[in-house]
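Anyone? Bumping this.
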Amino acid sequence: MSLFNLLKPVLVLVFASTLLTACVSPTYVTKGTEFPGMYTEKPKSLLIMPPINLSTAADAKDYYSTTVEMPVAFHGYYTFPYELTAAVLKEQGIYDSELVYDIPLNKFQEYFGADAVLFTKIVKWDTSYAVVASNLTVSIEAEIKSTKTSEVLWSYTGTVVVDLSGNSGGGGLVGLLANAIVTAINTASADYTTYAKQANARFIYSVPVGPYHPQYLKDQNIKIIQQTK
Amino acid sequence: MKMKLVGLLGFTILLSGCAATQKPMYEYGDYSESFYALKRDAGDENTVKWKSSLENIITKSSEQSLRVPPGVYANLGFIHLKANDNNKAVEYFELEKKIYPEAEVFMNNLIKKANVQG
């Protein structure tokens, strides 16, 4: 019996408890205590900025940008039409949101009439090059900033890890190779936006709902998982 | 323990609250798919599809007596603006403003632009 086999049950146990702690330990806070600015400023309209892409996938920015409007609208906010606002911003030389992130945002109040701006940052968007890895991760950081004060009113991160291994093939090298091939196929055909939408759902739930939502200004006590920065 | 139970109960109520909603808030048709296709390849075919997808949303929304989702009229106005059909563009920008007062500032700026162009 090798050392690994001997240790296997221990490793499994350690791994399982890590998983369990990850599930059980989160601290819950309420939307009201975590994001009080959203309830005092009461933004009604959100201007969705072009995503800031920190991933290695160059096309992630365009693809991801198509997934943001709908869930934010369903959350009760007036969302400016992204296809149109992105074109207007581009005309103004703003193609990269990095350029405007630190400047006063009142310009967006003046031209668009936007109460607040939604910044999204693609932190991780695995590409099909990582074929041997059987996990695909999409991770998005998001922030709502006031156009009046340029202060951050809300921020949260949504991450999705997808197992693309296909669960086919047995152990051993042949199984590993087979899995790598399946992974490559799955990744190539994977519509990343599906996972991006899941990642979006994981941060949007924490946003206090907007004026078109029936729970508007009534969700202060809704509990969310506290995220540490 | 009790707190956890209460939390769980609250969560379940929330979940069922969502599931029990009878009417969706908006009808987005195949907005997501056609927008994605447009970003992947902004050729003629996908541009036409994008436009018809927006028009479909308006038809379907009115069939279900739903408010047209934010930005749909404005996006259509933008398509007409690009095609130099300024009257039609202004018409759509006005509609956006009418159902969403939040859009007024932006729509007025676009209407100004369309009028200068036309």
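Late reply, but here is one note on the structure posted above: Residues 3-24 of chain A form the longest helix (22 residues).
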